[in-house]
Each structure stands twice: as structure tokens, then as C-alpha cells.
Backbone:
């Protein structure tokens, strides 16, 4: 039986280059702002969980911190290593491993961050527990991810839509679900920042690489939501092309 981790590896090995070309994944000015938000710098040891192509890992290293990326996808790790070498960034490394069983001793890092990945985890609480374990007492955790609508029907429609594009999508959580998970993990939520990631629909399709049948279904779903707001997303049309915004949040947690 194919495990979810194997499906993720297969999906992103296939889609690594397309994903890395998304502005969201690789635009360094925005990623430097994310790194600045964490206030890490020289002397910090930072773990980037499910780091993907590792552009955020590099942005963190550029602050002077020591940055370690962890991911399961060989194509992402190879791409990130090439980019790091080409840019001459020294305080940045990557390793392959499961986020549910991280290959680090307790308290290895004083900051752990996970961006745009919690919606891929079948057991997000287990990943959060691992982030807590490998972070020193008194350290900080940052969880940044898209949010689902608080309306259950719209949230279900959004998650079904996401799976049509990318079969490794599990569930986008609501803000309330994130808050309950943090409380259950005995983590103190100290700050929440909100943001919207904007996409052109056709650009967004490339990250998942769906079949033509699924792409046509997705186009119809977005056009319906443009009129009836079935997805709970901000959707608009510009010069005949569909655009939309993913609502998201960045949560700051004390260990």
C-alpha cells in the first residue's frame, strides 16, 4: 500500500520545478520578510520543517542564523542544494526525513518554522509535537499556512477543490482548529498575523499538475464560486483570466 509520505514524494518529485517557479515559493523579497518576521539572526539555530525547494531556508541563513531544512522529497532537496551552492550561502543545510519522526535530538533548535505544509499532513498534531520536541524550552515555533473558511460547507468545498489539483492535500484547517491544536500541545500562542496569497488560476494549476479532466472541473468550480462564493475564497476575473486569494495566517508560539 502506498503511504501518504510516498505520495508526497512522488507528487513533488514530479512537480518540483513547477512548484519552485511559483513566486510564493521562490520570490526572495517576500521570503526575507518572512525570515524578518521570525526575528532570527546570528547565534540562532533554526529548523525549516517540510522545507520544499528550500528558498525560505536560504532566506533564514542570510540573516546570519544557522538554518537546517528537512524534507522527504529528493528533487526538492537536490534543487535546494544547487541553489544554495550557486548563491554561496554557507550556514544552510538540508536533510531528508519524515516530519512525524524528525532525525534530531530533543531541543536541537531554538526556533522551528513550518510554512505552507500543515495542510499536507494526515496528523498535523503529531508534526507539531515533533516541532515542540526538537525546540528548546523557551524557544519559538512559527506555523504559517492557508486557512479554510469557518463555514463548514465552504471549507469542505475548498478542501475537495484542493485535492483535485494536488492529491497530497489533506485538509486546510480553520483558525479555530489551529488554536485548539496549539492549546492541546501546551504551546502559548503569542501572535497571529494574517495574509492573502494571490494566484492567477492557470499559474496555480501548474503546482499540482492535475489531469485535463480535473483542470476543467476546477475551472468550472472557480467560475461557479465567482458567482455564488461556494469556496469561501476571494475570486475575481481580470482580462478574461481567473485570479484568487488564499487566506492564510502566521502563528507565533512559545515553547
Residues:
Amino acid at each position: 500500500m502506498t503511504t501518504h509520505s510516498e505520495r508526497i514524494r512522488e507528487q513533488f518529485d514530479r512537480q518540483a520545478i513547477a512548484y519552485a517557479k511559483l513566486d510564493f515559493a521562490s520570490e526572495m523579497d517576500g521570503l526575507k520578510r518572512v525570515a524578518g518576521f521570525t526575528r532570527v539572526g546570528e547565534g540562532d539555530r533554526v529548523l525549516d520543517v517540510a522545507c520544499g525547494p528550500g528558498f525560505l531556508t536560504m532566506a533564514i541563513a542570510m540573516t546570519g542564523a544557522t538554518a537546517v531544512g528537512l524534507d522527504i522529497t529528493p528533487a526538492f532537496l537536490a534543487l535546494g542544494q544547487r541553489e544554495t551552492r550557486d548563491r554561496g550561502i554557507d550556514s544552510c543545510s538540508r536533510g531528508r526525513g519524515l516530519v512525524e519522526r524528525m532525525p534530531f535530538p530533543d531541543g536541537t533548535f531554538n526556533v522551528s518554522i513550518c510554512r505552507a505544509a500543515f495542510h499536507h499532513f494526515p496528523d498535523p498534531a503529531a508534526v507539531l509535537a515533533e516541532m515542540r520536541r526538537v525546540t528548546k524550552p523557551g524557544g519559538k515555533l512559527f506555523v504559517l499556512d492557508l486557512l479554510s473558511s469557518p463555514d463548514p460547507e465552504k471549507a469542505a468545498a475548498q478542501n475537495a477543490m484542493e485535492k483535485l489539483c494536488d492529491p497530497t492535500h489533506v485538509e486546510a484547517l480553520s483558525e479555530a482548529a489551529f488554536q485548539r491544536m496549539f492549546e492541546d500541545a501546551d504551546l502559548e500562542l503569542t501572535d497571529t498575523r494574517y495574509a492573502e496569497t494571490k494566484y492567477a488560476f492557470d499559474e496555480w494549476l501548474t503546482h499540482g499538475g492535475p489531469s485535463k479532466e480535473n483542470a476543467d472541473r476546477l475551472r468550472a468550480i472557480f467560475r461557479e464560486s465567482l458567482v455564488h462564493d461556494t469556496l469561501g475564497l476571494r475570486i475575481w476575473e481580470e482580462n478574461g483570466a481567473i485570479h484568487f486569494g488564499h487566506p492564510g495566517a502566521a502563528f507565533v508560539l512559545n515553547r
Remarks:
- Residues 4-20 form the longest helix (17 residues).
- The chain has a mean pLDDT of 94.
